[in-house]
Each structure stands twice: as C-alpha cells, then as structure tokens.
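User: quick one
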Amino acid sequence: MDKQRFTELVLEAEHTLYRVAWSILGNDADCQDAVQEAVLRAWERLDSLREPRYFRTWLIRILIRECCRLRRTGGRLVPLESRREIPAPDHGTVWREIQALPEPLRLPVVLHYVEGYGVAEAGELLGLPAGTVKSRLSKARRVLRMELEG
Amino acid sequence: MDWTDLHNAPKAPEGFHQRLVQTLDSLPDRKEGISMKHKHMTKLLVAAAAIALLATAAFAGGKLVEIVGHSSHNEDYYELPAAEAAMKTIESTSEPKLIETFSNGYSFDHGSTVENDYLTESGQKTGHYRTLDMVYSKDGDQISLGLRGTELPPDPDAEAFSLNGLDFQYSQMTQKIVPPDYQLTEQDEKDQADGTYVFSWGSEEVEILEFQLLTWNADGVNYSLYGHDSTLTQDDLTAMAVELMAQN
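Assistant: Done. Structure below.
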C-alpha cells in the first residue's frame, strides 16, 4: 500500500476515528494527539496488516490502544459526570447520554450502534468475547432507556 | 428510544481534520520508517538470541545450536499486560512479577511476544519456546525485561551474586551484529576467538553494541533485564530487579 492509498483510507475513516477517540478521552486535544500517534504507528507497522480490506478495523484497534495508553500516561482526564456538560454543538440527546455511560458500556455502544460494527467485530476491537459485548449492549440500552425516558 | 438521533453524532471538527492532514503530509518515507522499526526489532531479537545462547550453553553440552527469534505482530502490547495474561503467554506455572514504572523513571513503553526456535546446524527445528519482552524507556534510553516460563540453569561464565534471597547472574559483552549474508573476515575470526566480539546475524548493517544482561529465576519464571548501549550500570539493573520482585 503506498502513501497515497494509506492517506485516502485514513481520511475515509476520519469521523470514526474522532468519535472513537472522543468516546475514550473526552476532549479534542487528546483526540488529536492519540489519532496522530495511531496513524504514525499504523504507517510504521503497515507490514503487519495482512488483509488490506481490514484496514479500518486494524487502524481503530491501534487507535483504541493508543487512547488507553495516552489516558494511562496522563492525558487530560474528564470526569464522567461532567461528560454531559461538555460544551459542544448539539449532537443529539442519545449521543450525549452515550457519552455519559461508564466506559465499559460506552465503547461497545459507540462501535455497534454509531459505527455499525457487528457484535463479534466490536468484541474483536475491544478484546472481548461476543457474549460480553452483547450483555454490555443490553445493559447500556437499559441505562439509556432509563435516562432518556425515565 | 430514537436511535436515528445518532445521525447527529459529531463529525471530526476542523482542528482535528487539520492535524490529521498535517500528520499524513509529514509521514516519513516508508523505507525509512520500516528500517527504523526493523533496527529496533533486530536488537530485540538478537538480544533474545544472545540470552538464549548464554542460557543454553550450560546444558547444550557444547553442541552448537542456533536460536532464531521472530516476533508475532498480533501480540504487540501497548499497555502493560495483566499478570494472568503474561502467565498464559509464556506458559509458566505462576504469575510473573510485572511493573508499570520503576522508581528510577523507566516506564513501560511497549511489549512483544517473541517466538523462539532452536535449530541445529542443518536447520532442523529441535525445540521452541515463547518469551514476553517488554521495553521500558526514559529520556531516549531503553531497557528490556524478558520473561520466560522456565527456570534456566546458571551460566558458568556469568558473574553470580545473591541479594534479597535472589540469585542473580550478570553478563556483559560487546556484540558485533552483522547482516544475514555477512561472511566473517580473518580479523573477525580472531576477534571471535579471543572474545573481543560475540557475533550475531540479522541486522541491516554492521553494528557494534555493548550488551548487558542481568538474569535470575523465581517461582518457575526466568527473568532477564537487558539493554544495548544503555546508561544503566550493573547496580542500577540489580536495584530495578529487586524493585520488580517486591511487587505484589
């Protein structure tokens, strides 16, 4: 894969990369740092991508690891309870409530309902069995329903 | 609940887009990027092979064997693995000790699973083992912690000492790492014979590096702390080992 194709594929995934990173880190500055680092790592490790058709999934997996690493090494922590109040354009009530979910529930929901990954794929991205993803999605739906309808 | 509301999920803002474009525009030349990675991996693998050679010298009965290490890209770690996962990786009988950051400031950077094969001179595979190698860095200096799920016998050529109930062995050598097709010169043969250099094959260009290794066994696990051209001393490595083993 040459640089031009790599660039095209990264840009096609841009909004997904942003939403996934934001769902973990909760602020734009850290998202930018994490995505930059993930893209550089992906470029450096391109030889390890055996199937180019899995590029987006592969890149997201690298990004999730990078976000976790950044958070662990001192990113700008955003308290969970303040996620709803973060000043941002109106992205809809459901998105706002998803961001207020605890992280173990939040990421499966973002990957499955927002980004359209299947349960098994979301599990692969998060390193979780499909059954665990299913149960977290179920719990997340209950919490969201209570918040939105209760 | 109205899931169509998610059509309003945010798109990447302009600042994010600009930073991404900037990153993509400044990607290093592919060849350069790869060679840097390979150089690093070569050091890691050559180190693994060197450790294995030192470790096997005692029980190989002088019979020359070659150790070929290759990393598994699917098993790279960007976060410190859990002790249970590390135990499974190296197939040990107890959970190894792990540490995120040493008190001297070296902190976990990344790790790799390395598959190692024993080969005879004719290239026949006679054995296999897996190691977990974790790289710790501080101010550009790197040191690695290697874990293997088997206790290894002592190397008679290493300096042995005991501290805090642990039996350590320390080795230091000058490695000349050469490309795979490199043929030893007459001078190389002399250097090898008198111990000036320990030769290892696998780099892209000839490199001469100081290699130091501290190794010890505990609860069925062989630990090794090692580095190339590191600023750390034997005492520094020993203090790090003691700190690691004091972890819960």
